[in-house]
Amino acid sequence: MSVAEIRKSAEARMAKSLDTLKTNLAKIRTGRAHTGILDHVQVEYYGSPVPISQVGNVNLVDARTISVQPYEKPMAAAIEKAIRESDLGLNPMSMGDTIRVPMPALTEERRRDLTKVVRSEGEDAKVAVRNLRREANEALKRLVKDKEISEDDERRSQDEVQKLTDRSVADIDKMVTQKEAEIMTV
User: Fold this and answer.
1) Which of 21, 23, 61, 153 is deepest in the core (most CB within 10 A)?
2) Are the C-beta atoms of residues 157 and 6 closer than 8 Å to each other?
3) For residues 118 and 183, is the Cβ–Cβ distance under 8 A?
4) pLDDT grade for 186, boundaries at 50, 70 and 90
């Protein structure tokens, strides 16, 4: 493995860690509605669990309400049950062939708890990025040990990996700050 491959691999894996953080933060519910909240809810469809988006059309009615329009009428009850039994704390209402999911307002205490969860997710992402830095640095040390690169090249490469790490950590901090601000706005 060359120095460029090690750097490219570390960069790609750090970007993947940022993407994972972004999806994890999107799952954290704020007071506002967004269709991504229902992404991981599974509905029983002819014996196999599938995401809600595959059995119905998920839309926003307004800032606090999501609507789900099932593709097949008999699926309405199953979709409603799946949303109610999910760990999201939502209470869907059936209105004819459409299911409306109102988003309850968050209490101040719940908002503070959610900011702690957001910080924890951010910290997990930082740990993952630092682990990737350590792995890249160990790979560079192996190259020096095998006499494939000089110690100066190793030092330069480690500095580049550190800059990648610093950039990723700054991005994580920015994402966490934005999500905290989003949660705390009433």
Assistant:
1) 21
2) yes
3) yes
4) low
List domains and CATH numbers for the chain.
Answer: 3-27+107-184 (1.10.132.20), 35-102 (3.30.1360.40)
| Residue 111: partners with Cβ closer than 8 Å, 6 or more residues away | 183, 184
pLDDT digits (tens, 9 = 90+) for 30-39: 667 777 778 7
Query: What pairing do the DSSP bridges indicate for beta strands 93-95 and 98-102?
Result: antiparallel
CA 62/CA 39 separation, integer angstroms: 18
Q: Is the pLDDT of residue 44 over 70?
A: yes
Structure confidence at residue 108 (pLDDT): 85
Is 31 strand, coil or helix?
A: coil
pTM of the full predicted structure? 0.70
pLDDT at 83 over 90: no
